[in-house]
Amino acid sequence: MVAPGGTAMSAREEILGRVRSALAATDPSEAPVPRGYRSVVPAGDVVELFAERLVDYRAELTRCTADTLPAALADALGTAESVLVPDGFPWEVPGGVPDTGQSAAELDRLDAVVTLAALAIATTGTIVLDHGRGQGRRVVSLVPDRHVCVLRTDQIVPGVPQAVAALSPDRPQTWISGPSATSDIELNRVEGVHGPRTLHVLLVSS
C-alpha cells in the first residue's frame, strides 16, 4: 500500500492507519460501554465470602480479636525460628529479624515473614499489599516460605472495582490469591515454586 505522499507503507503503518480511521469514524456516544459492574456489590456478608474464597485457594485462615492476636500470631508461625519483620509491624514477633535490606538469597534462608495488608477483596479471596508501613518491600512477601498476614475485617472490600478505587496508583502493589502454586502438564499442583508455600491470614475482628 502507498501512503498519500507516494511512499510505501509498512504493514504496521497500514494496520495502525486503518485503526485510526475506524476510531475517527466512530461516535463513542453511539456505543457506550456498560460500566454497571463497578457498582455491583455481592450479596451476603463480604467477610464470610472473603474467608470462603481464601480457603478455596488453600490459604490458612485464623480468626481472632485484637486481644487474642499475639497468641494467634505465635501459633501461625509455629516452629519458625527466623521471621522477617518489616518496619512498622506493630506486634512483637518470636524470632523476629528486622528488615535491613537483605538480598533475595538472604531472605530465602529465613523461615517466614509477617506483614500487614492494605486491603482484601471478598469476591476473589485476594489480599493486597501496597507496601506501606508494616507491609515491607515487595520482595519480602515473595521469597520466604511462609507468609503470615494480619488483616482487619474492616479492610475487606466487596470486589476488584472497589479495591482499585481505594488503592493509590502511585504506590507499588502486590495482589496475592493464596499460596504460590503452579501445575505441570498433567495438572499436578506444586506449591512454593515462585513464592511462599504457605499463606496464613490472621483475620482480626474490628
TrEMBL record:
Residues 106-204 form the LUD domain. Pfam families: LUD_dom. This is LUD domain-containing protein.
